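User: Run a structure prediction on this.
Assistant: Running it now.
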Amino acid sequence: MKILKKVIDRKRKIFAIRVNLDPNTDDMWNIYNLLDVGDLVTGTCTRRVQKETATLVKNEKRSITLTLAIKSFIFDGENDSLRI
């Protein structure tokens, strides 16, 4: 796991980190142990979208950012995944 950015604001009670997770490591297990109900998790995903008209097909990339408020979470050790 590599920490890319860290923000600590004691007045507003904000602690945020941006990490890059390495595949096939225990990083997901460590993140699971840091999370708690009520925390916010933000993720970004890039999708390729095709727009078709009668004579033209146009491809473009769109970026989507989601923020989830954790109500419950489960670690799946077989797939090395975290379900929020």
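Helices lie at 27-34.
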